[in-house]
Design a protein that fits this description.
This protein is mostly helical and 265 residues long. The protein has 13 helices and two strands; from the N terminus they run αααααααααββαααα. 62% of the residues lie in helices and 4% in strands. It has a two-stranded antiparallel sheet. The longest helix is centred in the middle third of the chain and has 35 residues.
Length: 265
């Protein structure tokens, strides 16, 4: 079986639970003897994959991927003698992948447990689109947000505050300096994706920044603005003890303050 034939059944194989389950069935059942596995027939092969999916905490397979993998079992291409060794290496790779996923899930659960112990989960996640894991990842890098004098200080700490390049009489375009905590930038960037997808305020702000007539931003520039906004608003809700308010986030409060959650760039 051509490796390409197997990989192209799913655009991101290791993110496909169906692909992983089907590969596990093929490897553990017949050790790479595709003819024996194919003799199961489509229905029994699907049943075996569903059983493995259940073991992995899933219930419904992607039938498109499953059927393509079953069809690929009849592909005679490749060096038959090399298949056992190739499948042994694939088996190790999937085992490592499963171990890494299990460790990640355990780490995320511990992070959220700490957030719960601090009684910050509900408050932080009042920002629509910010998950408990996303909030915990940010706070793990910032520490107690109350130690910052302003929300802008948090953004600068992350290295997300643009600074104009100046030298003598020359003034360049404002850009990120690269200073600050890179892991905090990464955490804010990841949190931003969830907010843009599920938070109407962030979605509208992103659309405005990338389509306005004057000073239109590139997508990455707008995403950087919103990543900074996540940090400012998280600082606001934590330091004030007040849940995120979409009206304030959209329109502001009518006065300059660093204690309110504002999306303004």
């Amino acid at each position: 079986m051509r490796l390409a034939g197997r990989v192209t059944t799913a655009q991101q194989p290791f993110k496909s639970h169906t692909w992983l389950a089907a590969m596990h069935v093929i490897m553990t059942r017949d050790g790479g003897d595709f003819a024996r596995t194919r003799r199961l027939g489509p229905a029994r092969f699907e049943h075996a994959v569903r059983k493995e999916l259940t073991r992995r905490g899933r219930t419904r397979p992607c039938l498109r991927i499953l059927r393509k993998l079953y069809a690929a079992l009849a592909d005679p291409a490749g060096v038959i003698a090399h298949r056992p060794g190739a499948f042994e290496r694939i088996s190790w790779l999937i085992e490592d992948w499963d171990t890494a996923r299990a460790k990640l899930a355990d780490t995320e659960a511990r992070m959220v447990a700490v957030l719960d112990d601090l009684e910050l989960t509900e408050l932080a996640c009042s920002i629509q689109g910010l998950s408990p894991v996303g909030a915990a990842a940010i706070l793990a890098e910032t520490g107690d947000l109350r130690r910052f004098t302003s929300s802008r200080a948090v953004v600068k700490h992350a290295g997300l505050a643009p600074r104009e390049r100046m030298s003598g009489t020359f003034a360049g375009r404002a850009r990120l300096t690269g200073a600050g905590r890179p892991h905090l930038r990464t955490a804010a960037w990841r949190a931003m994706w969830g907010a843009v997808k599920s938070n109407p305020v962030y979605a509208d702000r992103y659309r405005h920044l990338t389509t306005r007539e004057m000073n239109k931003l590139k997508p990455t520039q707008a995403q950087t603005v919103l990543a900074g906004a996540i940090l400012r608003q998280l600082h606001a809700v934590i330091t004030t003890g007040q849940a995120w308010n979409p009206e304030i986030a959209t329109h502001g409060t009518g006065r300059r303050s660093t204690t309110h959650a504002e999306v303004a760039a």
